[in-house]
Specification:
- A hairpin with a 2-residue loop joins strand 3 (35-37) and strand 4.
- The protein has 140 residues and is an alpha+beta fold.
- The protein has a single domain (4-138), classed as Roll (Pnp Oxidase, Chain A).
- 24% of the residues lie in helices and 38% in strands.
Length: 140
């Protein structure tokens, strides 16, 4: 589903924004680290301090009630607007707590982000976005 340009653009970005919605449709958007593999996007919950237990995060509660999500990665250049661009993926999210896909996703994320390598991610859930639609604009 991702074409080569979309995949390259996403792989060049270090942060994206994950949009979830609760059961009533109220939106919630947070910046996330992510990795792409085939037609899935992976996001892990990490060891950074949280207000409560990781399992209580709003994004996880929202996905459990409403798995429809969007992820946007963008490039902004204040000096050269011909370089502006974004890629948005939409799909259904799953929360993966263990198993081979969980391990592969954590390894992929650790290979992409050095900061994650020192963290014990095995105990944290992974959000897997099963891409259904891709949109883009600008210099992608």
């Amino acid at each position: 589903m991702l074409n080569d340009d979309h995949r390259r653009f996403l792989e060049d970005r270090r942060v994206a924004h994950l949009a979830t919605a609760d059961a009533t449709g109220a939106p919630h958007v947070v910046p996330v680290c992510f990795a792409v593999r085939e037609n899935d996007v992976y996001i892990t919950i990490d060891d950074k301090p949280k207000r409560g237990p990781a399992t209580a995060l709003k994004r996880l509660r929202n996905i459990a009630r409403n798995p429809a999500v969007a992820l946007v990665a963008d490039h902004y250049d204040d000096a050269d607007w011909t370089r502006l661009g974004w890629v948005m993926v939409r799909g259904k999210a799953e929360i993966i707590d263990e198993g081979p896909e969980h391990r592969r996703a954590q390894e992929l994320l650790k290979s992409r982000y050095a900061q994650l390598r020192a963290m014990d991610l095995a105990r944290h859930p992974v959000i897997a976005i099963r891409i259904e639609r891709v949109s883009s604009w600008g210099a992608v």
